[in-house]
Amino acid sequence: MEALLRELEQASGGAARVMESRAAEIYAKAPLAAIPEIAQALLGVPGARIVAVFAEDRVEPEGVFYNYYVFERTGVEPYLIVRAAIPAADPRFPSLSASLPALNWQEREIQDWFGLEAEGHPNPRRVALHDNWPDVHPLRKDFDLRAKLDAFEGERHTYRPTLGEGVFQIPVGPVHAGIIEPGHFNFAVAGEPILYLQLRMFYTHKGTEKLFESFPVSKCVFLAESVSGDSAFSHATAFSQAVERASGIEVPLRAEVMRTVLLELERIYNHIADIGAMAMDVGFVIANAHAGRIREMVLEVNEELTGSRLLRGMACIGGVRRDWSPAQIAALPAKLSRVEAEFRSMRELIRYSDSTRDRLESTGFLSPEKAAALGIVGVGGRASGVDLDVRRDHPYAAYRRFSLRIPSFSEGDVLRRMCVRTDEVYASIALICAAAGSIPAGPHRAAEVAVPPGRYALAAVEGWRGEILYWVRTGPNQTIERCKIKDPSLNNWPALVEAVQGNIIADFPVINKSFNLSYSGTDR
Amino acid sequence: MFKILEKTFRAGTVTKDYPDGAAVSPAYRGQPRFDFANWRDPRSTASVCPTGAIEVSDSGQLRTVTVDYGHCIFCGECAGAASGGAVTVTPRFELAATRRSDLRVTAEYTLDSSGAQGALLRGPAEIGAKLKREIHRVLGRSLAIREVDAGSCNGCELEIVALNNSLYDIERFGIQFVASPRHADMLLVTGPVTRNMELALRKTYAATPDPKLVVAVGTCGIGGGIFGVNYATCGGVDQVVPVDVYIPGCPPRPEALLYGILLAVGRLGA
């Protein structure tokens, strides 16, 4: 950590200053002009990564916008967050995307939502607002959440033309053939192989980050559950942790272990469904039928423990909303070992099916180099050699207390993304059983949760897709002043574009499913 | 091949018998039930509801309490200490209705001059009661559904996908999901309808041949849910296209979806 701070000091020519040093995060401030040098210096070391960049409107109290650059380094637990002020009168900041493609969408999001120009961005077109939107910047404080925008006219987005003899464009979406979320895919194909894929997301943009600023904190937890419905508990827990850290709320140990169990249940039910769906997308329907059935076994456990099949209504600030009886806890290991046995035999069916393996292996290849450059996290990252896992790197809940097996592959194909999920299902079941055997007595939520104004903190959760990031600043009267959400999908979508190139279009569904990214989590 | 068959036989039949047997786990958090006669302090209960599904309005000597299941996310907060035991959570999930207003229940109380709540004047009728409805003979036997996500969080989609698994197996009713609105009899629409999906929903509706049905799924589909109406959302499916059936839930469990779909095609034997 000391070395990191010295580097920061040197890179900025002494202009960067540490503002605050906490166990999980270190805040520094630096002049805007020094940011490119600082980023270059901090990232020039193996194991260094830029986690996120996001903005905040502080024009009314301080006359500036802030950009926050979040860095991490292997083996160093706290995140390093460098804050740079952008004067309201000169709303521009130097873009880093040309050398850090991982920030491509994030900087454009700041451009769209805050009206801060990312100077020198290689592709400064809109990403988070469609082209037919008026010139509004919803996350500025002077923009009204309930503003009624006129009917949109004109093109949403102009796709790059695809030219050449025998080259076709195939537009797909936003209403898809399957039961999935909306987005637009524009394929350029030459015969069967995909030459190029252009994406248009943000169809499900619901003004979520702005909404956080209008609700009391207690209600915000429910909003966090609705950011990405398959990650309801992970999102709500990440939000709760950010508020707890900001406010200094002590979470009882019992609640931390219960959270750990629930986070792993969320991972299991989603992974099992994905493995089945990937098998189905290459024609092995029977495996999916079993996966659907086994997933229901997990949803029954969810319902028994939380009253909700999808773990809703359980997260809260200061712990968990409902307690478990000793009988409920005691029943867990046996239920999960039945799930494990069923899952194992379903997985064997896929493993021994040569035709299935043939379709999965080497399909949708994402090289470790590209994965690292694009800032890929989670399952997609671990299948392409990006060995990141918040549970190990920045432990939260009760993860410090249990041993973790984190699978990692470097082959980067659909098969390995299935293998990461498979190994994680086994590891999560083992973890839940260990946790269930050691849930300490005591309260399941903090007796008092007061959220003082003007505090801020970052918290991350390793959702089943990957790193879910929340940064909050609290406001007066138990409110939230700013809530930044980064779903793992945001950075992983561009990886899909890379992974499909050269594959036949018939393999697109299985490649897409192998990442299974969240549209709602991306679009917010 | 032998392993595949063996696994299939070992798994046996797992399909649930809903709607013939309607049992769900008692742990399931479904409809909150209100004991209106003994509800002393609806105001403090209303204050803990995160979506404003409980509304209390006082005028003169009259207090009107409205519970809107269309706004309820079934979190169970109302059944906490604030209700003084007057609210209990039940596993009931058959809540779909053909009119938006059928999801609201209203009770009236007297108020004395100090503003204290007096006797219950008028209690509400049970909601979700099966409605006599002309059976759609055209759509009654087989039904093709096109699902449209108009900005949901994906929670409703997970439960809709579950209708196709072997436990709920919606095809046993002759109901199937189709890939195009042009092949569909029914649109099953989720989400608060984002401004970015508004046009897509209108076009999908226009592309669906008549006669057609529209079902609004989930709290967001019914009235925008926790997202409500804002710069990026329209606040529910019926703000954009006409809706035939509303299915409450956040998300509705698969049986609740089945109930709503069967209600829409008049196949509940009412």
Describe this entry's structure for a reader:
- The complex is a heterodimer of chains A (524) and B (270).
- Chain A contains 18 helices and 15 strands.
- Chain A has 524 residues and is an alpha+beta fold.
- In chain A, strands 1-2-5-4-3 form a five-stranded mixed beta sheet.
- Chain A is globular and about 65 Å long.
- Chain B has two domains: 32-122, Alpha-Beta Plaits (2-Layer Sandwich); 143-264, Rossmann fold.
- Chain B has six helices and eleven strands.
- Chain B has helices spanning 2-11, 42-48, 155-162, 195-207, 218-223, 254-264, and strands at residues 32-34, 54-59, 62-68, 87-89, 104-111, 117-122, 143-149, 175-177, 186-190, 213-217, 245-247.
- In chain B, strand 7 (143-149), helix 3 (155-162) and strand 8 (175-177) form a beta-alpha-beta unit.
- Chain B is globular and about 75 Å long.
- The N and C termini of chain B lie far apart (46 Å).
- The chains are: A alpha+beta (524), B alpha/beta (270).
Strand content of chain B: 15-25%
Per CATH, the architecture of the largest domain in chain B is 3-Layer(aba) Sandwich
CATH superfamily of the largest domain in chain A: Cytochrome-c3 Hydrogenase, chain B
Biggest interface pair, counts: A-B, 66 and 63 residues
